[in-house]
Amino acid sequence: MHGAGNIQTDAVLINLNDFDTLGVSSAKEIYEILNDKTDYKDGAWYKVGVDIPAGEYVIESYGEGYIAIMSGPVGKSEIIDNEIFNGRYAVNVSDGQYLKISRGTISQ
Known about the structure:
Layout: H1 19-22, H2 27-34, E1 42-47, E2 55-70, E3 79-93, E4 98-106
Antiparallel strand pairs: 1-4, 2-3, 2-4
């Protein structure tokens, strides 16, 4: 690119206004389509009320897991609550919040 060499990207930027055009309702749905997955529940940022419903979730770690309840999307949020854990951890989330999961998966 302009003499800089090869650029590798592992992400896609999509304007929220284009979801209707793409026939999707969330970033999670786009990820599932692009990666041929169904009902993805591993590490990610989940928007509560869009990607997952509000309620209680049990997260199971693989190794040392981390969860955070965030007030907004990546780059525009504050941590409401967070925890580093091993094994199982229960968390309650409300509509409009974001659930960030690292090294873990939603088990229920």
